[in-house]
Amino acid sequence: MDVSRMCGERAGKVWNYLMERGPSSERKLRRKTKLEEREFFGAIGWLAREDKIAKERNIYMIGRTNLTWEIGSRAGKVWKALSIWGELSEDELSNLLDMEKREVLSALGWLAREDKVEFVNNRWRLKEIIE
To answer: Which domain holds residue 57?
Structure first.
């Protein structure tokens, strides 16, 4: 399964839970959706790119996003690093960019929503654009 489809499906799980149950903490959302760290934060980045999720303290809710600056600016840094280095693991991105792993993961989710990244052999790289 390609990374865009995978992130989109996991974002759907988070969105559906929030629509049905209302605002929820990160801990509860992760437990109820049964998403691992990579999956959860990728989904948050995806939903932020779609302007569908907001966060107040540790509570996520459906609504216009207030995460654009936070996640979108990090996505730009991740994109730039991948354009320079080619392929990097999540840990390498985290160390290189001095970001927490969850920040890298949400940035990758944002880029996945834009269909700009792929995940091959546990490494991230930019998708080749075929015109």
So the answer is: 1-131
